[in-house]
Structures are given as structure tokens and as C-alpha cells.
Amino acid sequence: MRKHGKRYNEALIKIDIVEPASIADAFNAVKTAASAKFDETVEVAVRLGVDPRQSDQMVRGSVVLPHGTGKSPKIAVFTRDAEAALAAGADIAGAEDLVDQIDKGFKDFDILVASRDMMGIVGKLGRKLGPKMPNPKAGTVTDDIAQAVKDLKGGKASFRVDKAANVHVAIGKASYSVDQLEENFMVLFQAIMHQRPSSAKGTYVRKIAVTSTMGPSFKIDSSEAISKAGK
Predict the structure, then answer these.
(1) Residue 194 pLDDT grade (very low, low, confident, very high; cuts 50, 70, 90)
(2) pLDDT tens digit string along 82-114?
(3) DSSP assignment letter at 195
(4) Per DSSP, what are the bridge partners of residue 211?
């Protein structure tokens, strides 16, 4: 049985909530439970009724959150116009030189973006990069590098179902208001719903939970989320 720390247990004592909770109540509980000395990240986890082992049941996409994610990711760009990428806000940009750097172990970035003409040489990094590999569905392979960088810096969030059929996405900070967290969540959740594979049978959304970096998680009433997503 997993043991939790003193702060975690004290946080739970402060919360009076019946789960699964309404979206607003769940985010209010997360904010109340966040007691670290830093501004904790709020993350949503959605368990889906898909089989990620099947290529036609992969759920992946990206969305610009209305209130941003609360952090500015470090972005590296594969492009032959490094000057334009850096001017748009990229932290590092290059072509073959950047491919070589990463091939040798360079990892000082959060997100990778690539122009379409670069994918021929970026492909060699596939195994090394794994899920960080630039991908058209995530909007990180594009001919409009400047817009992609601006979106990512401004709060664009990518999501991808993992091997256990979960989607984990950071949607803001504990300092955000409940309304801001709920608005970010709904934009994300609508995008996940939109990506439902036609081959997925049965219940698509199995469970939704939200947590902060150091706090406990709280279950969200999936029926309320699904109802609001359909509006």
C-alpha cells in the first residue's frame, strides 16, 4: 500500500468533497489542497476506453488553452531559417547541426518543432526522441514555424494516450482561478472527445482525475464533462 507524506495527508483533511465531484468542486479542492511553497502545476488525467496497441485507436492532438499552461516551454526548432525561428521566440534552432547535437545527447528542450522539409533528416532521431518526435497531429511539423512557436509559447498543449490508455496534460497552475482551470480543462476535454477513434467501442471516457504537483487527486464527474463538451 502506498504511503503518503505529512503534507499530502494534511491536505486531504482540509477537503470536504464527495467524488466523483463536479468540475468546479474538483478544481476548488485541488486549489485548497495545494500547499507547497511554489506554484504547483495542475494536471488532468483522462482514462480512455481505447487500445493504444492498435494503430487505429491512437488518440493524439494539440489545443491552445485559453489561459495558457502557466509555463513557457523551451522550444528547439529544426529549420533552415534559424534566424526567423529565433525571432519568433524559439530557444534554439538549427538544421543538421541541431540533429547532430541531439544525436550526441543534447536534451535541453521541452518541445521540438520541425519544418516539413527537415523531416527527412530528423527521422533518424525517431528512437532517441520517442514521444518528443515532431508530429503533424501535434502541430509540431509545419510550414509555419513562427506561428507554431508563438502558439506553444502562448499555451498550446499537446496530448497523447499512453500505453495504459491514459492522457496526462498540465492545464495550469494552482494560482489560477477555478474558472480559468475549468475553461482550460473544457477546451482540452473537447479536443480529446473530438479525437475519439471510430474503431473504439463501448465507453470512451472511463475516468477523469485532477491533481496538483504535490497534492492528492480528485475524480471529476465524467458525465458532466461529456455533457458540457457536447454543447
Answers:
(1) very high
(2) 999 999 999 999 999 999 999 999 999 999 999
(3) T
(4) 43, 217
Confidence grade of residue 138 (pLDDT, cut at 50, 70, 90) = confident
Residue type, 94: G
Q: Is-contact 22 28, C-beta < 8 A?
A: no
Long-range CB contact pairs, 91-99, < 8 A, 24+: 95/121, 96/121, 99/124, 99/125
**Separation of alpha carbons 22 and 76, rounded Å:** 39
Query: What does DSSP say about strands 60-64 and 156-160: parallel, antiparallel, or unpaired?
Result: antiparallel
Q: Are 140 and 111 in contact (CB under 8 A)?
A: yes
User: Exposed/middle/buried for 49, CB within 10 Å: 0-12, 13-18, 19+?
Assistant: middle
Detail the DSSP E strand segments found in the chain: 41-48, 60-64, 75-78, 92-94, 111-114, 156-160, 166-173, 205-212, 217-220
Contact 92, 77 (CB under 8 A): yes
Q: Which domains does the chain have, with CATH numbers?
A: 19-69+156-229 (3.30.190.20), 75-153 (3.40.50.790)
* 84, 85, 88, 89 alpha-carbon torsion, rounded to 10°: -140
Report the alpha-carbon distance of residue 104 to residue 109 in Å, rounded: 14
Task: Report the distance separating Cα 7 and Cα 130, nearest Å.
Answer: 35
Residue 88's alpha-carbon distances to 25, 151, 152, in angstroms, are 39, 10, 11
Residue range 191-200: mean pLDDT, rounded: 93
Average pLDDT, the chain: 91
